[in-house]
Design a protein that fits this description.
The chain is an alpha/beta fold. The protein has one domain: Response regulator (Rossmann fold), CATH 3.40.50. Helices cover 41% and strands 20% of the residues. A 5-stranded parallel β-sheet has the order 2-1-3-4-5, sandwiched between helices. α1 links the parallel β1 and β2.
């Protein structure tokens, strides 16, 4: 079996992190953080996470700001980012994709959607 991929989960709601951890912990190494500032710090460390699941609506830094910082940094811009949000308007989805996100998953989470999207991006 190949080495387990590492996912960085970023959400200010502990219950959302718990749901994601429950879904993904059997197949992936997980790092879960409550805000964008910590996420940027971890994303910049070696080895980089293989994928970031990033909430949009967060205090301190929203997901769009985090995504912008990731994209502006040579070390982190290649890390794929899936945005997670209750903001499911076409405008927000388009904005995230235009900024470099590789996917968008609406809240509340559908377990199959998360598992399929993560697997699709990592393979």
């Amino acid at each position: 079996m190949s080495e387990r991929k590492t996912l960085l989960l970023v959400d200010d709601a502990p219950e959302n992190l718990d749901v994601l951890k429950g879904l993904l912990s059997n197949d992936y190494n997980l790092k879960a953080v409550p805000n964008g500032k910590i996420a940027l710090k971890i994303a910049g460390m070696n080895p980089h996470p293989d994928l970031i699941l990033l909430d949009i609506l967060m205090p301190i830094m929203d997901g769009f700001e985090v995504l912008q910082e990731l994209q502006n940094n040579e070390d982190t811009k290649q890390i794929p980012v899936i945005l997670l949000s209750a903001l499911d308007s076409e405008e927000n989805i388009k904005k995230g994709m235009d900024m470099g996100a590789v996917g968008y998953i609406p809240k509340p989470f559908e377990p199959d959607v998360i598992l399929n999207k993560v697997e699709e991006i990592l393979t």
